[in-house]
Amino acid sequence: MATKPWCSTLALFMVILWASPNYPKAAKMNVIDKCWREDPRWRSHKQKLATCSVGFAGKMTNNIGKGLTRYKVTDPSDDPLNPKPGTLRYGVTMIKGNFTSIDGRGVDVHITGAGCLLVYQATDVIIHGLRIHHCKSQPPSSVMGPNSKLIPLGQMDGDAIRLVTARKVWIDHNTLYECQDGLLDVTRGSTDVTISNNWFSNQDIVMLLGHDDGHLRDRNMKVTRGGSRNLF
User: Fold this and answer.
1) Do the bridges between strand 2-3 and strand 100-103 make them parallel or antiparallel, or are there none, so unpaired?
2) Backbone angles phi, psi at 71, to 5 degrees
């Protein structure tokens, strides 16, 4: 995960991490995959992913360059109020601004349990290569945020990924399934979002674009659903 200084909030809940083999080499790759998978040394050039996005999210070039903070998840445990170094949540407490990439390439990252993944009032965010599933609803609670500041959260419905007042977000190559509410919500003024190469399965409610018909900020929402294929 790479970040630049910021002041918005990414709230995450439970993570399980296992090792996995390299990506298989595809005979025919779409424009996004071709951008980085053809490089045999992609593990050494991970920042290149930010140049591969398409659609309304645009290129994520603000997520690369000097001044990045790199963080590697090594601990699968989770404590919302006292996160341990090495956990994904502890990495979130280091984030003090936008320009954030959660990159699961080369490992098998599972996010599951209460709440799952919320992107709140953030911009320039990449979510790539995660498995998010069996997310459950969560009553109002608090989580530890940047600068050891407790952040109050409202009711969490049990979505795999929820964007709230977020902008310029690229969601790519994730596997989402079997959550209590839906798999992907883009709501409350979120815009400039690209959803590509994801696999949505075993779910009745898959995707919500817009909070409701009366929410004025969602009328100008811009979302690219495709650019490259999503599987339902």
Assistant:
1) antiparallel
2) -140, 130
Say how far apart CA 56 and CA 54 lie, in whole Å. Answer: 7
Q: Residue 97 phi/psi, 5° resolution? A: -175, -165
Q: What is the CA radius of gyration of the chain?
A: 16
Beta-bridged to residue 7, according to DSSP, are none
Residues in a beta bridge with 112: 133
Q: Could you tell me the pTM of the whole model?
A: 0.85
Query: Which ranges of the chain does DSSP label H, i.e. alpha helix?
Result: 31-37, 88-93
Could you give the CA distance from residue 45 to residue 49 in angstroms, rounded to a whole number?
8
Low-confidence ranges of the chain (pLDDT < 70): 1-27, 96-97, 227-229, 232
- Dihedral of alpha carbons 186, 11, 137, 111, sign: positive
- The per-residue DSSP string of 199-221 comes to EEES-S--EEESS-TT-GGGGG-
Q: What is the DSSP letter of 3?
A: E
Instruction: Name 72's Cβ contacts closer than 8 Å, sequence gap at least 6.
Output: 1
What percentage of the chain exceeds 90 in pLDDT? 53
Q: How far is CA 183 from CA 69, 135, 144, 198, 205, in A?
A: 29, 9, 24, 11, 7
CA distances from 210 to 11, 42, 64, 123, 217 (A): 20, 36, 30, 18, 9
Residues 98, 5 contacting (CB under 8 angstroms) = no
